[in-house]
Amino acid sequence: MGRQLTIAILAITVVALLHSTAAQQTHLVGDKFGWLVPPGGAYAYEAWAETQTFAVGDILVFNFTNGDQDVARVTKEAFTACNSTNPITLKTTSPANFTLDTIGDPAPKPSPAPRGPVTYVVGDDFGWIVPPGEFNFTTGEQDVARVTKEAFESCNISNTNATVATTGPAYFKLETVGQYYFIGTKDKRCELGQKLAINLGWIVPASGYAYATWAYGKTFIVGDTLVFNFVNDTQDVAVVTKSAYENCTTNNTTAVYTKSPVRILLNTSGEHFFTSTYYRHCALGQKLAINVTARSTATSPSGSVAPSSPTTSTGGPGSAPAPFSSAPSKIGSGHFTFVLISMAAFFFY
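The structure assignment produced for this chain is given below.
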């Protein structure tokens, strides 16, 4: 019986800063997250690399579980094609160290060749829905408590300062890295399996970032098409202004489409904003903002629009902030932020 190794690939354009006084640095790839197949896709390690400054003599350290992962140093062509059949170096034992002993290629990337119109399915397989992240249950029959690990394992909250929500739907904002534990406290529900543990080894974006995350890295050009897939009579697609998008007000929409699939041709450049007119759907994160570039100037990813100054939302508690910029930002040395759509939805019945 053969053993299948999952090979993840990391590209780092190493621009060596040849300062005579620079000390050798060790870079722990992925920081505490380590080296594995990232749940957030290839962007995870791209974001990590953006926080680092690499110089000749530095060392990359890959930490992983032996037998489950390995590290292959490959050519640019092999990296682009995900072809690991002829690696430059292959290391199968953790920790795997690579010394950066030569200068990389600091030349800017060439402008992409013109392309034809592209059709984007909004949310891909996820579709156009309210991003999950709430506890749905019948008030009076169920509840949900955020508890300690010990209380989670023993189903006993008598000696803990548990946070109990008794009205459904209930929302818990996951703001920091770490482990979160939730249980139902009624009628031995916990003992019967009504419990949820979430291990946040990365930062979970607020629900409003779900579709901004989808838009990240995509280049939207005049002539492209957006396709919104949803269940009829449960969702719709509203074209709105920037102000309506930020404040989740849908009483003055530009257009509303109610039958799936909705195909919207991007025939003008600039910012485009979409949401749903259903109650609280916008406040719960069903909103999309993109920047469309003219075909003659499309030399870099447009993606989601940059954030504006905070505004007061009329969409009620849980209104999502404006989407983040499509350009990667320097987060700071040693800090690694993963962008990942939180799918940690749990439904109580």
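Interim note for the steering committee: The chain has a mean pLDDT of 72. The two ends are 42 Å apart (CA to CA).
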